[in-house]
Known about the structure:
Blueprint: E1 2-3, H1 18-22, E2 30-32, E3 37-40, E4 61-62, H2 65-71, E5 75-77, E6 90-93, E7 97-100, E8 107-110, E9 129-131, E10 134-137, E11 143-145, H3 148-152, E12 169-173, E13 183-187, E14 193-195, H4 211-214, E15 248-251, E16 259-266, H5 274-281, H6 283-291, H7 296-300, H8 303-306, H9 315-326, H10 333-346, E17 356-359, E18 370-389, E19 418-433, H11 435-442, H12 445-464, H13 474-493, E20 502-507, E21 512-520, H14 529-532, H15 536-550, H16 564-569, H17 604-607
Parallel strand pairs: 1-6, 5-19
Antiparallel strand pairs: 2-3, 3-6, 4-5, 7-8, 7-9, 8-12, 10-11, 10-15, 12-13, 13-14, 16-18, 17-18, 18-19, 19-21, 20-21
Amino acid sequence: MSQKNKPKKSFEPGEVRSSQIITTWGPGSIVQMEEDSVIVMGLDTWPEAFTTEEELTKYKVIHHPFLESICGKEHFRMPQSEDKIRAGIPCNSFPTWGYCSFKGCRRLQRHHGIPDKGKFYCEKDGNELIPARLITICKHGHLDEFPWIEWAHSKTQDQEGGICDEPKLKWTSNTRSTSLSAYYVSCESCGKWRNMYGALNTLPDLPNIEEKNISKPFICKGSRPWLTKPAKCPPKTGNENSKVTRVQGILTRTTGLYFASVINALHIPKYRHKIHLAIENKFQTIQSLREDGDSLEQIAERNSIFKDVMQDYTKSEIVEKLEERFNPNVETELDIRTEEYRDILGTDFEGDDLIDISNVELDNKLNPYFSALKKVDRLTLVKALRYFTRMQPPDPFSTKKTNHVNFCGIYNSNKINWLPCVEHKGEGIFVSLNEKKLSEWEKREDVKERCKPILDAYYEWSQDREWEARPLSPRYLLLHTLSHALIRELSFTSGYSESAIAERIYAGSDFNAILAYTASSSSDGSLGGLVRQGELTNFESLMENVVKKSQLCSRDPLCIEDDPKLKEERGDPAHARFNGSACYACCLLPETSCEEFNRLLDRKLLFDKKIGYFGDFVE
């Protein structure tokens, strides 16, 4: 990271990994560095935003047809160049208020510019400033400084309000408590003060402060310090009746201050075809031709682009691949999953440096339960940051990002034709259940009765959050629970920890699969231990242990007797009815591994003699 518009020898506040820029600390987030608190600036100010096509060769430029189509961008860029010669990600100090570290001073003051050797200093005694931990936020995601001056001069029980001519603030606390109410801010010039109790609520009307002052600190002005322009607040959404939006105080280290909306996709064999590789090699040229009005048929005739493949493929085949590349039939990440499933399962591909998949023949013991088992010796996962929200996580499978009232953009300029991304390498096991057996299983009345309360709770919870209710069925609960059980067992046999293995669930009305994989930007993503468990003998032993261990839990009988229908009948809230028999002792995983944050799980669906899919797998 680097300070925005910094001189050549200015101090850089710290470093973060590329993957953290995409998830935890992307544009608009507040990062607590060792010396200062900074906000990551939008894409408009990144060095990548000012590069020419020739200079792009210095950067890691990623193409993925599905992600480009959904995000409406031409390509993606890694936050770190391959030769590491570029400047860091721009950031600014935020909040710009801080208090003196010397206990005898504690002057609360605002700083400006770039810090001296990474630190700001008190204007009174020259000691280091500690960043203030309070800012304001509105429900639409806008950020601003906390109104310290107005807060200190607002009415208290024993004094009149009114801001003095030269306010000099001091941050003080008593020793009776560590809560926020134990702190208060006072003005040394006029003696007025106010306790911080209530500062984390919606800031109230202060009748003793003049109206012209109220409208500035306590009404949102659409401030977006990570972008160059403020926004209109409230936004024109059609659902907003009020003409103004009040702000509330919030701590800068609050988890809910930043939720990244990340969309991800695997590189799949379909796009590793020789024609697609030729398209990739001349991508910028083809894009220029399309912008000039050339049709795909005209582009397919270009000898300069397809010279190496024209002798092996017809014009119609080249046009077909161009259509696949530039007009993929995807709108959401669920569509991406469908395309991945079909391609991984049905494409014959030798493998290359991005993806390598080999089939494993099933024997008589596995055949009744599974239809496919594949070893993914090499996979490549692309994760791209689209936007972010505050206070409430975004709907991961939404078709419309503007459904979120607090949707926040990461750039201003319409000229930004790219998004930041990271590319992870890894390995995995791809397994699909017997579709005929699965279809018969999920149509059984006792299975439906067990699963319905769990699915209803999920729909109710999604509706409360204004999320799109994606269609789910008992097969998803089974696949998700099996995935968790597999990952827990793989952590004992593969050499990876639970937190290093992730899941990717493929569940449609007529297809199903699980991809248990590990992917990392380092070598930890492809050590080979996971793939070895996909060999037939190892997988049979793995499944036997999965089914046996799913019958046991250290919290039994409490866990196994957990009844979703009973919880629904007694009126438990939706978030308490997400799971059936599942807890941290048997099914739940670290949240880095689970795509549903440990929701929609029930181990009874695995082993139970009546409703379990694998009820007769182990004698």
